[in-house]
UniProtKB/TrEMBL annotation:
Pfam families xrefs: Endonuclease_1 (PF04231), Por_Secre_tail (PF18962)
Native source species: Flavobacterium terrigena
Signal peptide extent: 1-18
Name of the protein: Por secretion system C-terminal sorting domain-containing protein
Family: Belongs to the EndA/NucM nuclease family.
GO molecular function, one term: hydrolase activity
Region (Disordered) location: 139-167
Record's compositionally biased regions (Polar residues): 157-167
Residue span, Secretion system C-terminal sorting domain: 292-363
InterPro entries in alphabetical order: Endonuclease-I, His-Me_finger_sf, Secre_tail
Keywords from the UniProt entry: Hydrolase, Nuclease, Signal
Length: 364
């Protein structure tokens, strides 16, 4: 979600930044589909809180407690289907509990929010714990959720309808699939892609038996190649946001498992290395295309090494303050020194002509 790289403030204690639990990923040492199975073994012990438990989870996982363009900081429900990434104008402003689905209404946007299964619950026959898993079941506008139905997320060729925030519903532009798809706005494509990768990993012991246009009846790749390429592009073009980190932490408190692709975005291309290699030169910055050293640092400075043509560096602390915003930084022999860094934890967004990525920096 790109907009979260500008002026984000995490306010509540539960929404506050938290480190990944020590040793949580200590057994994730492989690569390719071996790594995917190792991650499955780490995250498959979630606590099933039931379908009603999602409402309770949303109280801490999906509230707008942020400051910045497009944020209200008013504790309303943060909804990927109606939020505006550039302005708060026209947003629904759903009130927790009060605006929940009552079983009626929802004929137009902004009446109610309900529970959207990013992977439709019909494909797994509404079975537990999939139906109740907040890592891919999000609060969204009831009208838009209903319009999307069981259609895959995808790239639209011919638009049949548009949501208030610019989401599109229409015919598929994905090779091999000619049905209807729903395309979210760019600011949320990465969020949704990481939910798909979570689902493919968390339920790899069952997913081969489920029929869905995006799936290829395997437990390793899971997705058809055209849909996989789309998800990889979405993941890499819209890096992990601070909101996703906060949401992951809040769900971990409730479910006792995490989305590894938020904690370690690099796992995606470590699993799907061949597909990422085929796409990387065209669509996004690969994680290993930029190196930062030393990191952590105790000298209040780091060196950034890359051969990419970097157009912008934006350093944001966990309180949402932009510490540095450097347009067209001048690299000397592929190196740029970022200095005078106060002690703390930061997100560095690195923008280039062919994409962007975000790195974490720790200053001790």
């Amino acid at each position: 979600m790109k907009k979260t790289y500008s002026l984000i403030l995490l306010l509540s204690a539960i929404f506050g930044f938290a480190q990944i639990p020590a040793g949580y990923y200590s057994t994730a040492t492989g690569s390719g589909y071996t790594l995917k199975t190792q991650l499955f073994n780490i995250i498959n012990n979630q606590t099933d809180l039931g379908y009603g438990g999602l409402w309770v989870t949303y109280e801490t996982s999906d509230r707008d407690a942020f400051i910045g363009t497009g944020y209200e900081n008013d504790n309303t429900i943060y909804d990927m289907y109606t939020e505006n990434p550039t302005s708060s104008a026209g947003e629904c402003g759903f009130i927790y509990a009060t605006s929940q689905d009552t079983g009626s209404g929802g004929g137009s946007e902004c009446q109610f929010y309900n529970r959207e299964h990013i992977i439709p619950q019909s494909i797994f026959s509404q079975a537990a714990p999939m139906r109740h898993d907040a890592h891919f079941v999000t609060p969204t506008d009831k009208k838009v959720n209903g319009d999307r139905g069981d259609n895959p997320h995808g790239t639209v060729a011919t638009v049949s309808s548009t949501t208030n925030n610019g989401g599109k519903h229409g015919s598929s532009a994905i090779s091999g699939y000619s049905g209807q798809v729903f395309e979210p706005i760019n600011a949320f494509k990465g969020d949704i892609a990481r939910m798909y990768f979570y689902f493919a990993t968390r339920y790899e012991d069952q997913v081969a038996g489920w029929s869905y246009p995006m799936f290829n009846s395997t437990s390793d790749q899971v997705f058809t190649t055209p849909f996989l390429n789309m998800l990889l592009t979405w993941h890499n073009n819209d890096p992990v946001s601070v909101f996703e980190v906060a949401r992951n932490n809040a769900i971990y408190v409730r479910q006792n498992n995490r989305n590894p692709f938020i904690d370690h975005p690099e796992y995606v291309c470590q699993i799907y290395s061949t597909q990422c290699a085929a796409l990387s030169s065209e669509t996004f910055l690969a994680d290993d295309s930029v190196n930062i050293y030393p990191n952590p640092t105790n000298t209040n400075e780091v060196d950034i090494f890359t051969t990419e043509n970097i157009t912008k560096l934006t350093l944001v602390n966990i309180n949402g303050q932009i510490i540095k915003n450097i347009e067209n930084p001048i690299f000397n022999q592929n190196s740029y020194k970022l200095n005078n860094l106060p002690q703390g934890f930061y997100f560095l967004q690195i923008s280039a002509e062919n994409g962007s990525l975000t790195k974490k920096i720790i200053v001790n």
